[in-house]
Amino acid sequence: MSDQPIALITGGAQGIGYACAEAIAENGARIVLADINVEGVKAAAEKLGNGTLAFGCDVADPEQINHLFDQIEEQLGPVSILVNNAGVAKPNDFLETTVEEFQSVININLIGTFVALQRAAKGMVANKIAGSIVNMSSINAQVAIPSIASYCASKGGVMQLTKSSSLALAPHGIRVNAVGPGSIDTAMLAGVNANPEAMKTVMSRTPLQRIGTAREIGDVVAFLASDKASYVTGETIYVDGGRLGMNYTC
Predict the structure, then answer these.
(1) H-helix or E-strand containing 202?
(2) CATH node for 6-184+213-243
(3) How large is the average pLDDT for residues 158-172?
């Protein structure tokens, strides 16, 4: 096993997850990508190169998450950087949303994040690694959209999970932080990008007057994962073009 840090990024086949992998790789880590899209994550690993490994994993299934870590530890060693990026949003009218639909989002975005975070932390503690864990939250941990109540609830949960786990793991030198993206140019925003009226609404709430890029999120994640953020833990950094600071719109 090498001394090179091993970084696991879930939801790494595309978008923000892949951008996180690129940025963290530039800091010298060995990258492992995981995604429910098996073919997509294999292609992403090949594109990234430098010995990047790819695994299929549905983060809604705790057994698959634990098996993922077992495989990584067997082939490379313990994970020292985890980016909990995998997540979904399932828009629906609030009054029509079923319990099953709500639960499916919570299972992926919040419970999956908890399971991976805890499993990574156990490996770090056992191997005396002062590692870094970065969770993907959202500005919707603070503000809300009525059609994605489950997503908002899950990301608010991620924010609080980040705080509580950072306190629990601080004695072991393990840092836990989160990043809260605003409107970012990914597949999740494709519908908005294709609708001028919807984009106009987004821009009315974005002081910098543009949507962000996946790499802009990846760079913040890479910073939090690095020693440059060695005194930062329990925080959520919002990368939103100024949206959360806005009061009235003109």
Answers:
(1) helix 196-204
(2) 3.40.50.720
(3) 98
